[in-house]
Amino acid sequence: MSTRIGILHPGQMGASVGAAALAAGAHVLWASRNRGAATRHRAAAAGLEDGGSLANVVSTCDVLISVCPPASAVAVATSVAALGFDRTYVDANAVAPQTALEIASVVREAGARFVDGGIIGPPAHKGGTTRLYLSGAEAPFVASLFEDSALEGVAMDPTEGSASSLKVCYAAWTKGSSALLIAVRSLAAAEDVESSLLGEWALSKPGLEVSSGKAVKNNAFKAWRFAGEMREIANSFEAAGLPGGFHGAAAEIYDRLESYKNCDPAPDVSEAVATILASARPGSQTNFTSATAWTGPRRP
Description:
This protein has an 8-stranded mixed beta sheet, sandwiched between helices. The chain has 2 domains: 4-160, Rossmann fold (3-Layer(aba) Sandwich), CATH 3.40.50.720; 166-281, Orthogonal Bundle (N-(1-d-carboxylethyl)-l-norvaline Dehydrogenase, domain 2), CATH 1.10.1040. It has helices at 12-23, 37-46, 54-60, 73-82, 97-108, 139-144, 162-190, 194-204, 208-219, 223-239, 245-255, 269-278, and strands spanning 4-8, 27-30, 49-50, 63-66, 88-91, 113-120, 130-135, 151-155. By secondary structure, it is α/β, with parallel strands linked by helices. The protein is built from 12 helices and 8 strands.
């Protein structure tokens, strides 16, 4: 009998995870109750079976895989635990390792076994592009559920939180640097030096103008999700004794792009920059930790 897997809840990434498990031979369900038309369409297109209610999916499945916005990860785990799920729970969300351990505690109270997961890559529609990193005692078992599918399951080690830590480190650069490029373009526009900056980039950093345009095009429609992920990353840095301000600021840049949620086509750079600047908090330009003016280099 094939393993019964429940996907909570099939967004673009979650639906592809479900489709990969289905291709690997699993029986894959999802809970349609209280879900919108877009989610229903994605689940149907992926071939997932509608289990109706969350309670029915929880009672039916051997493994539950949570793929949701980071801010909802604890709430999803709590709802599953409240229904008494006592088999294998995989949190595959972009959360800080501390949050992953909190989720582990929540699901274990109901008797479930916990596996920490982190997805790197785009939705898994093509082999070789996307990996589900897994840590915890049952990581090898969960990885085996995706053999010969478009999603590669990678068992790391038994240390819970390792998969989330890897995801945090990876996204800290990929999504964090995109937010920084968008912020730089916004500052240049605010200071009316954008054309000069682009001219200098063409001389000394060729390709950076194109990269900043891609940062908007590839991320604006997902910015509403990335904001929460940046806050999880900031928390991870701070827990390690490192400054979290880089990614706290990245979260605010993505917050300011929230109006483009699921937009198609994506805005161009000038439109996104205008939106970001229009969202500036009054007085934010004077929000410094010190009001002391710089008067030149300090001398011994």
